[in-house]
Design goal:
heterodimer; A: 111 residues; mainly beta; 7-stranded mixed beta sheet; B: 112 residues; 5-stranded antiparallel beta sheet; 0% helix
């Protein structure tokens, strides 16, 4: 039981490049979330999903897209990376309106 | 707009000290408040509080919620260097989305 995993752990992009972050959970959770964490700003919700095939915008969705084609996976895409997207990205999941379980994070730098 | 505010933002203490971390919230249709500990990686769950005045305890950590004054505190007694971390507080509204509203976090450094 790996819990929540994220791929990759680190990535450096140039401005304008695209990439996809993968989140996978093996706990059969319905709900999944993508956050970004910047110094002094806590965790801010980017997008979330309440079930397979559904997605919704969070607090800071601009510049990101997501997909939930399979229940266990939640993908976060950056179509044209900008330096303002330099951050640590966390994925989380939960079975219901309860505590969320977090992945180890992805550190992204956009030059 | 829902918000959660933590104070202080950072704190430096010495081993053996007792610390109190504060969290105030304004969350529409409030359901519960959660505390997490983050040590350079993923946040890990500490407590979930739903009722006022009932203390939750785990070892040297304890937490309580005041739903009238809209705040929660996290106490750590006899601090150890291993308690050094960012402590995150989050409010959970009653909804079918499971969304949490996080505060900025309190960075605690415990010196030997």
């Amino acid at each position: 039981n790996a819990g929540v995993t994220q791929t990759p752990k680190f990535r450096v992009l140039k401005t304008g490049q695209s990439m996809t972050l993968l989140c996978a959970q093996d706990m059969n959770h319905e709900y999944m979330y993508w956050y970004r964490q910047d110094p002094g700003m806590g965790l801010r919700l980017i997008h979330y999903s309440v079930g397979e095939g559904t997605t919704a915008k969070g607090e800071v969705p601009d510049g990101y897209n997501v997909s939930r084609l399979k229940k266990q996976n939640f993908l976060l895409g950056l179509e044209s990376a900008a330096p303002s997207q330099t951050s640590v990205y966390f994925c989380a999941s939960t079975s219901r309106v309860d505590t969320q379980y977090f992945g180890p994070g992805t550190r992204l730098t956009v030059l | 707009e829902d918000k959660v505010v933590q104070s202080p933002l950072s704190l430096v203490v010495h081993e053996g000290d007792t610390v109190t971390l504060n969290c105030s919230y304004e969350v529409t249709n409030f359901r519960s408040l959660l505390w997490y500990k983050q040590e350079k990686k993923a946040p890990t769950f500490l407590f979930m509080l739903t009722s006022s005045g009932i203390e939750k305890k785990s070892g040297r950590l304890s937490s309580i919620l005041d739903k009238k004054e809209l705040f929660s505190i996290l106490n750590i007694t006899a601090t150890q260097t291993g308690d050094s971390a960012v402590y995150l507080c989050a409010g959970a509204p009653s909804s079918n989305t499971g969304k949490l509203i996080f505060g900025q976090g309190t960075t605690l450094q415990v010196k030997p």
